[in-house]
Design goal:
The protein is of the alpha/beta class. The chain contains 9 helices and 8 strands. The chain binds pyridoxal-5'-phosphate.
Amino acid sequence: MHETLASIKNYLQTHGATLVAISKTKPAEEILKVYEQGQRIFGENKVQELTDKYVELPKDIQWHLVGHLQSNKVKYITPFVSLIHSVDSFKLLEEINRQSAKINRVIDVLLQIYIAKEETKFGLGFDEARELLQEPKLNSLHHICIRGMMGMSTFTDDQIQIRNEFRSLKSFFDEVQPLRSASFQPDILSMGMSGDYKIAVEEGSNMVRIGSAIFGERK
Ligand SMILES: *Cc1c(COP(=O)(O)O)cnc(C)c1O
């Protein structure tokens, strides 16, 4: 289903949620069409593609990484990335901090939390995320800021299951607010894609990652 960008944006604006347009696999000219309609936040799931598109496209685009990040590739994106949605270990956080310190940036990240009943999805369990947030070394990382969490629901038609998964992440997001510190300033809850963004927003998401509903199906 192709929705218009305007109708998606209108819905999100009414509900106070930010749109990340997921442009993976789409060529620069299609991204530019969406850019020309006013969209400035785009997300990619692969480091190479993100880096290529950053070089090719207008410099006022805010680029988000939403896919899995390997430690050895962090250095390629730290110069320009504006939000990394997919931090799933303390080790990766340390590497992002190390690379961003070198160029004197503070990089905003989200912890990717595993909420789906599927084995293929990356992310931290709630207990692992709690542990990471209470790691004593966290506050020595001056070049990262954990701004919240990202989660993906199970790929299913069961709306109740999807809703419950989003609800569980919102409740975790609320639970950990008291752990707020210099390195942990949680105000972003990234949940919802083309098929489930309205459920996500109803359950408290304030950032949605929408690809196919804007750009059409990926091949
Ligand atoms: C591809 C992708 C999306 C967008 O998916 P659509 O169903 O096309 O909206 C959102 N988040 C992540 C992490 C993705 O990889």
